[in-house]
Amino acid sequence: MKLIYFIILPFLITGLTHCGDKENGKTDKECPDNLACTEIFVTVSVPLIFKNHSFEELARSETSLVSGNEIIFVNEFSINPGSVIQFAAIVNDMHLKKLKKEGSEVIFIIFDKNNKKIFEEKFIIGHDCCHVEKRSGPEEIIL
After folding, report:
1. Chunked mean pLDDT (size 10), the chain, 143 residues
2. Domains along the chain with CATH numbers
3. 104-113 as b/e, with b when 16 or more CB fall inside 10 Å?
4. Which of 20, 68, 108, 112 could make an SS bond with 28 (beta carbons 3.0 to 4.6 A apart)?
5. Vertex 46, ends 45 and 49: CA angle to 5°?
């Protein structure tokens, strides 16, 4: 009987100690706990190029995870006086835990003041365990 305990016990201990936190698709192997990160706050953003629309027409943008259709970021547009180039924020470091390290597919949508979609594009956003990073997607948004 004791022999069975000695055979089963190592498997049981191994199984219990290697259970990762599967919440939001992350596992304990994805990022180490003792990682030292800089205190900068990173936002993945893309410059807006206006051809058929003006910045004043824009109301908000939404970023959603393709898997699960969860909206993870809503951004209200506001004019930055004196700025020559306007940017659209896609995600920032607050959303890191919702994204897979190797990259998660997100849909970025821009709405005008009449709540009409005027832009929709997929991006792949990942992270380096400290900060979000754009893996793929357009370098600029032409509106």
Report:
1. 50 45 50 86 92 86 90 84 76 93 95 93 95 95 91
2. 25-142 (2.60.40)
3. bbbebebbbe
4. 20
5. 145
